[in-house]
């Protein structure tokens, strides 16, 4: 594999979420990943993030996407 930009490799690194999956019968308020995301804040608990395009053909639903990515 030829990589011209180290940031491209870092962007594709997968994060393994820790903790238990929430029960489908008791889904948490706000973002569905709030109980397991290491980046979660109060905003994540209070509202479902809207889907936003971060680059052509790539979208994300995260309150902190611009800050993290």
Provide an overview of this structure.
With 69 residues, the protein is α+β, with helices and mostly antiparallel strands. It has one domain. Helices cover 22% and strands 13% of the residues. The chain is built from three helices and two strands; from the N terminus they run H-H-E-E-H. The chain has helices spanning 6-11, 42-46, 65-68; strands at residues 51-55, 58-61. Strands 1-2 form a two-stranded antiparallel sheet. Strand 1 (51-55) and strand 2 form a beta hairpin. It is globular, with a radius of gyration of 14 Å. The mean pLDDT is 81. It comes from Coprococcus comes. This is Oligopeptide/dipeptide ABC transporter C-terminal domain-containing protein. One of its GO terms (molecular function) is ATP binding. Residues 12-44 form the Oligopeptide/dipeptide ABC transporter C-terminal domain. Keywords: ATP-binding, Nucleotide-binding, Transport.
Count of discrete domains: 1
Based on CA inertia axes, which overall geometry fits?
Answer: globular
Uncertain segments are none
Give the end-to-end Cα distance, rounded to a whole number of Å. Answer: 23 Å
Helix residue percentage: 10-25%
How much of the polypeptide forms β-strand, as a percent range? 5-15%
* Class per helix and strand makeup: alpha+beta
Number of strands: 2
Query: What integer is the average pLDDT?
Result: 81
Question: Treating each run of at least 4 consecutive H or I residues as one helix, how many helices?
Answer: 3
N-to-C SSE string, H for helix and E for strand: HHEEH
